[in-house]
Amino acid sequence: MSASPPVRLSVLDTTLIGRTPESAFADTIALARYAERLGYTRYWMAEHHGAPGVGSSAPAITAGAIAAATARIHVGSGGVMLPNHVPLVVAEQFGTLAALYPGRIDLGVGRAAPEPRTRAMLARDLVNYPADDFAGRVAELIGSLTQGFVSPRATQPPSVWILGSSSAGASLAATLGVPFAFAHHFGRGDAAAAIEHYRRHFQPSTAFPEPYAMVTLLTVVADTDAAAARLAGSADLMFRSMVAGRPILLPSPEQVDTHDWTAEDLAFAEQRRRGQAIGGPETVRDVIAGLLARTGADELMVTSQMYHLADRMRSLELTARQLPVPA
Question: Quick check: 7 pLDDT over 90?
């Protein structure tokens, strides 16, 4: 089974920290450069707060570092969580990036709020922006980027994307006439239904006369199914510990090997992997082809959460072999 027609292939990164923040960001830069060499279309940074094993709390800063270290690949956020920010500040940050790296900057925005402690700290600066007014924030953001008083206003403003895991995000993206990215890697929601809703209700805009949909996928590819399953255990254990209230750094595969997995741990890992692409090349090829056939997505964005940089590079290489990028 193969994917047809070809779709663009991209990367979502969260800068997971297994040793030090410095080494984690060095790995992110190295992986972005490698993705560019492999022909990937874009490299996005997520936004997460309050977890010692996750370094991607400031996507605008990391995106700038990645853009400076690469030459062609599109760089951006996947995404900036607007409930955490004043839209004007986001517009200034990404407007600056767009002026520094013309035609290469994407601004994906989502509505997810952080955990309560982080939210309480942020709320001191966001009292005039209700958390549930996501559509209003997006409208203000787009207006600031294209017609407000914000400076710099780049000749080629960043492309604004709506991120979501339900029909609510799809509806907003369709109404605004912007691209839509469905977070299938979250393991919840119906990607096919949301993307179909987005296409059916899409209202053309000047920047995007046609709908454009992306789907994200947790992808861990190794030479065999067993090897990939072992490598995926690092992130399984880190996120399980986070959910259980015992946050840890990203453990190595060797540390995972010695972990005493409880029934609850195993159930969490099974749920997290459901519908994702974890395995050898043939297994992953079938999962990707099935997802693309169901959704009709124009682009696939993979997130490969492994401890060793060499394993992440190998995973991107094997993924590209299963899904050749368009010329």
Answer: no
pLDDT at 3: 41
The answer on pLDDT for 5 being more than 70 is no
Checking if the pLDDT of 327 tops 90, the result is no
- What lies within 8 Å, CB to CB, of 219 at 6+ separation is 276, 277, 278, 284, 288, 302, 303, 304, 315, 319
For residue 219, give the nearest of 267, 290, 288 by alpha carbon: 288
Domain ranges of the chain: 8-216+295-322
Residues in Cβ contact with 61 at an 8 Å cutoff, skipping those fewer than 6 apart? none
200: tokens are: 């059916």
91: which 2 tokens? Answer: 């517009």
CATH topology of domain 8-216+295-322: TIM Barrel (3.20.20)
Q: How far apart are CA 289 and CA 182, in angstroms?
A: 16
* Whether the predicted pLDDT of 125 surpasses 70: no
Asked if pLDDT for residue 117 goes beyond 70, the answer is no
Task: List, for residues 214-266, the tens digit of each pLDDT value.
Answer: 999 999 999 999 999 999 999 999 999 999 999 999 999 999 999 999 999 99
Q: What is the 3-state secondary structure (H, E, C) of 179-241?
A: CEEECHHHCCCCHHHHHHHHHHHCCCCCCCCCCCEEEEEEEEECCCHHHHHHHHHHHHHHHHH
Residue of 256, 255, 221 lying closest to 236 (CA atoms): 256
As a whole number of angstroms, the distance between CA 99 and CA 172 comes to 27
3-class state of residue 88 by DSSP: helix
Long-range contact pairs involving 32-36 (C-beta distance under 8 Å, separation at least 24): 32/66, 32/69, 32/70, 32/73, 32/75, 33/69, 33/70, 34/313, 34/316, 35/11, 35/73, 35/316, 36/70, 36/71, 36/72, 36/73
Proportion of the chain above pLDDT 90, given as a percent: 73
